[in-house]
């Protein structure tokens, strides 16, 4: 039923685009016949908006990977640099939460480790919605911020790094076998707000998969049992994402953007001073309005990265006649 609903939505969307295009073309013809420039201009503006929507649907049509339609986990980790880097990690967490909400997805915060003075050391959120992983998968990598630090009394310019890790939720149709003897399970007290129960019991759970070194943590629930179950789901998802990446790299020699996250693999730079610019280093897409980007306006970057990942040409998204 879910697949049928998705197909119905896709077909209906294409029909709406086609009808709207024909209607606006007729309006332009009528406006030109009657010499009404305002009608012509309004119809042309509508056609430009339709082009943007068509480009988005073209990219969505590319989301045909094995797990693209699934919900997704997003991990944020601050890099070296103390408070400045932790504040940057918090800004990224807010950016992706805003993007998800703007896109009609639901967001659940699974785990947050607060910084000593400000920001966060790490956080994990769950984004729920059709194609959530397909849209988010190109965001994995290192994000670089350049700004005048609000935490520097000398008002010097600082460069900070934080990393994003994206991996799909594994549904019942995907079987992932994990040997429990290969895992270490730690419990600890949750941090942050949550009331007396959360702060006084070891309800948070961290599971480390020893052969791969992959570690996941959950502190969302009051119950250790529920947190443990969510952490196992997260670990299965991480191991599945690793397997997907291996398959991609074996099938596609163009693996530069698909390698493991490392501090040398920056995917995007956000410069707030001395000038304002956000630039994706993989596709060359730029924005001179970083405030909008940090408020969740990411579709332009995601669409270009998806087109680049699939076809090797970031410009494909905009080449619609």
Helices and strands in order, then pairings?
Blueprint (H helix, E strand, L loop, with lengths): L1 H33 L2 H26 L9 E7 L4 H20 L3 E9 L5 E9 L3 H5 L4 E8 L8 E12 L14 E6 L6 H6 L3 E6 L4 E5 L5 H28 L14 E6 L5 E4 L5 E2 L2 H5 L4 H13 L10
Parallel strand pairs: 4-9
Antiparallel strand pairs: 1-3, 1-5, 2-3, 4-5, 6-7, 7-8, 9-10, 10-11
Helix pairs in contact: 1-2, 2-8
Keywords:
methylation; disordered C terminus; Alpha-Beta Plaits; globular; 8-stranded mixed sheet; 321 residues; 3-stranded antiparallel sheet; Peptide chain release factor 2; Double Stranded RNA Binding Domain; translation release factor activity, codon specific; alpha+beta; 23% strand
Straight-line distance between termini:
34 Å
**Based on CA inertia axes, which overall geometry fits?**
globular
Q: DSSP strand (E) fraction?
A: 15-25%
- Rg for CA atoms: 22 Å
Number of domains: 3
Instruction: Name the CATH architecture of the largest domain.
Output: 2-Layer Sandwich
Unreliably modeled segments: 253-262, 313-321
Q: Percent range for helical residues?
A: 40-55%
CATH class of the largest domain: Alpha Beta
Number of helices: 8
Family: Belongs to the prokaryotic/mitochondrial release factor family.
Pfam family, one: PCRF
Keywords: Coiled coil, Cytoplasm, Methylation, Protein biosynthesis
Organism: Agrobacterium albertimagni AOL15
Task: Provide a quick synopsis of the model.
With 321 residues, the chain is α+β, with helices and mostly antiparallel strands. It contains eight helices and eleven strands.
Description:
The protein has helices at 2-34, 37-62, 83-102, 132-136, 195-200, 224-251, 290-294, 299-311; strands at residues 72-78, 106-114, 120-128, 141-148, 157-168, 183-188, 204-209, 214-218, 266-271, 277-280, 286-287. It has an 8-stranded mixed beta sheet. A 3-stranded antiparallel beta sheet has the order 6-7-8, covered by helices on one side. The protein has 8 helices and 11 strands. It is α+β, with helices and mostly antiparallel strands. The protein has 3 domains: 2-62; 72-169 and 263-318, Alpha-Beta Plaits, CATH 3.30.70; 180-250, 2-Layer Sandwich (Double Stranded RNA Binding Domain). Helix content is 42%, strand content 23%. The longest helix has 33 residues, at 2-34. The radius of gyration is 22 Å and the shape is globular. β7 and β8 (214-218) form a beta hairpin. The modification N5-methylglutamine is found at residue 196.
């Amino acid at each position: 039923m879910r697949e049928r609903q998705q197909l119905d939505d896709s077909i209906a969307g294409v029909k709406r685009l086609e009808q709207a295009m024909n209607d606006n073309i007729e309006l332009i013809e009528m406006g030109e016949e009657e010499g009404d420039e305002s009608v012509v201009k309004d119809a042309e503006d509508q056609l430009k908006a339709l082009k943007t929507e068509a480009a988005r649907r073209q990219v969505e049509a590319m989301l045909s990977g094995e797990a693209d339609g699934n919900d997704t986990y997003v991990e944020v980790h601050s890099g070296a640099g103390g408070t400045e880097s932790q504040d940057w990690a918090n800004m990224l967490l807010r950016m992706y939460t805003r993007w998800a909400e703007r896109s009609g997805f639901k967001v659940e915060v699974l785990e947050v480790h607060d910084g000593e003075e400000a920001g966060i050391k790490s956080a994990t959120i769950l984004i729920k919605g059709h194609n959530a992983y397909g849209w988010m998968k190109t965001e994995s990598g290192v994000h670089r911020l350049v700004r005048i630090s609000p935490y520097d009394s000398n008002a010097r310019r600082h460069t900070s790094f934080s990393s994003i890790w994206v991996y799909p939720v594994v549904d019942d149709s995907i079987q992932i076998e994990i040997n429990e003897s290969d895992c270490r399970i730690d419990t600890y007290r949750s941090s942050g707000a949550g009331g007396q129960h959360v702060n006084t019991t070891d309800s948070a759970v961290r599971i480390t998969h020893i052969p791969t070194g992959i570690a996941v943590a959950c502190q969302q629930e009051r119950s250790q049992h529920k947190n443990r179950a969510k952490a196992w789901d997260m670990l299965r998802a991480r191991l599945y994402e690793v397997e997907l990446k291996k398959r991609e790299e074996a099938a596609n020699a163009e693996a530069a953007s698909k390698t493991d996250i490392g501090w040398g693999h920056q995917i995007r730079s956000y410069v707030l001073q001395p000038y304002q610019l956000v630039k994706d280093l993989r596709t060359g897409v730029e924005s001179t309005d970083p405030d909008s980007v940090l408020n969740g306006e990411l579709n332009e970057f995601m669409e270009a990265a998806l087109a680049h990942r699939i076809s090797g040409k970031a410009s494909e998204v905009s080449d619609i006649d």
